[in-house]
Amino acid sequence: MSGIFIIQFVVVGISMGAVYALIALGFTTIFRASNIVNFAQGEFVMLGGLLTNFFLLTCGFAYPLSAVLAIMGVVLVGIGLQVLVIHPIRQAGVLIMIMGTLGASMVISNIPVPISYLPKLGYLRDPFVLPPITTAIESVAIAGARISTQRLWAIVASLVILGVLYYFSNYTRTGKAMESSATDPLAAQLVGIRVERMVQYSFAISAAVGAIGGILITPIFNMAFNSGALLGLKGFVAAVLGGWGKISGAVLGGFVLGVVESLCVGLIPEYGSRYQQMWAFIILIAILYFRPKGILGSDAVE
Amino acid sequence: MKHLLKNINFRIALFLVILPLFLPEDLLPVLCLGAIYSIAALGMSLLLGYAGQISLGHAAFIGIGAYTTAILTTQFNWPVLAAFVASIVVSSVIAYIIGKPILRTKGFFLALATLGFGEIFFVFMSRTDPVIGGLVGIGGIPYFSIAGYEFSSYVQMLYLYCAILLGLVIYSQNIVNSRTGRAFRAISTDELAASTMGIDIAKYKLRIFVLSAAYAGIAGSLLATYLSMTQPYGFRVDLSIFIVLAVIVGGMGSLWGVVVATVVLTWLKDDQLSQYQEYSALIYGIILLLILIFVPQGLGSLGQRSFQWVKDRIQKARA
After folding, report:
1. Could you tell me if residue B2 is inside a domain?
2. What are the pLDDT digits (tens) for B58-94?
3. pTM: predicted TM-score of the whole model, two decimal places
4. Do A99 and B244 touch (CB under 8 A)?
5. Domain residues for B305?
6. Under an 8 A CB cutoff, do A99 and B248 touch?
7. How many CB atoms lie under 10 A from the CB of residue A267?
8. Which of A42, A11, A263, A288 is nearest to A146 (CA)?
9. 8 Å CB contact of B119 and A277
10. What is the DSSP letter of B144?
């Protein structure tokens, strides 16, 4: 296979990895503020795409306005999830938390179904793609491989968000307060941090990050109301792969997962693309076997 | 005889023998399914309720059992009983292989790893066409039969499933009350303390994981002969979640409670909710959340809690 093909698959992998990185960042943000793993993370991504599509098609808003409204809508869903589901079961243990977020994922992904029976909303049930963000230049050539600008957008956006989140959690009062409310909730409360509020912030941020991922991915990926769960799981795999609980680990894991998955699909003859959705989880089992701490090393995984 | 009548298992067995004779015909299919899923839920109850290990990949082990029976009976003409035994062996062996790496993790990560395993199984089954049949699956699986006697009517099948279920409950009770069972409980309470007492944690975890997969294999094999076909969509994450939910509703430590919960939930999901078609997943999800929020200790705790509530009220009224 020629070099150009490999470069093509690597760049496609990096751009898909950028979205995995954003999902992984969502997992990490919530975990760092509350020690909770939110299995409904993928639904934020799906909703980001779905709501943007809704505002574009049904309300007829311009693209930037639709995207902003969609992100705000998903943030509301994130806070709602924390208030309605996470808060009531926060004392009930890991198992109930896992089942609760899985149940929330089931509910969120199925809410579009009854809504789609309202007049003129039937498209909510169908797979959809968003128009690309920039239409002026469709693709650019990198080392002989053609890359669509949408993929470049995804890469740039995830790096920017990485920077913002890194700055936020390490250099701002709120960011530090969020972290301390996971490390020791009681002590955090005693020094005047409103722990519950911090957990809500983390859900809001994580929902926003997920929604941005959804808006970036939907032009290059066939999205449907039920594709959130799989994306969420892959984002979780990325976060474990890079080093669980670390912001840099989430991003690195996302890119590595995207590239390795893309190379598996591209380079393994016949079986590569046939079993496309399987490779991420084979990578997961391998990483849990050989290096459960992930690439950058994490002290959260036992 | 008097001693026997006091035995709870004997009473339930008696109940199960008489029950199918008085049931309305249209409840039988749901009860058959409920009994089959109960077998898988029993295994999950041992894993989750006694050893404290989460698995969200048990649908895959049920699927492995079902597919083993399907392939061996339809393509290699094995007798059903032999295929049944092979199903148990195959799902146990795969659980042994997969259990070694993933049981090193706990909690959220074990949930993710088992979910990932379930997804690998689903993708493999739905994308492999030769032998397995891809998304279409395998049809034409014969009824369960022992030495030429075929279990072909619902009543016959229900008796068969109840007999196997009863045997497995008694077997599970023996495990729970044995050295192994005490080791499991020690592990789920405090792993560190258990290991200092000389319990080989990794070995026991793997053992219970394999055992619960064997139960799932039994359920899968019976499911294949009951439905007379297998399809990958029947063994997805939602089935794994369903089995775990049944254990939560039934109460973590109660084996018969889990059986009752599984039957009731099967009736709810496959009989009541299925009439809402596209909305059923949404309604089911909401019910799941309500259960987790209001009765996370299982429905068994509800009686105790309402009793406590009445008692408190009376005390308040007196004071």
Report:
1. no
2. 999 999 999 999 999 998 989 999 999 999 999 999 9
3. 0.90
4. yes
5. 29-318
6. yes
7. 12
8. A11
9. yes
10. P
| Distance set, CA A99 to CA A39, A40, A60, A274, B292 (Å) | 9, 10, 38, 31, 8
Show the domains of chain A with their CATH numbers. 3-290 (1.10.3470)
> What is the ipTM score, two decimals?
0.89
Contact A111 B282 (CB under 8 A): yes
Whether residue B287 lies inside any domain: the answer is yes
B134 within domain boundaries = yes
User: Which residues does chain A have within 8 Å of residue B289's beta carbon, measured at their own beta carbons?
Assistant: 85, 100, 103-104, 107
Is residue B212 assigned to a domain? yes
Number of domains into which chain B is organized:
1
CATH number, domain of B283, equals 1.10.3470
Size of interface A-B (CB pairs under 8 A): 124
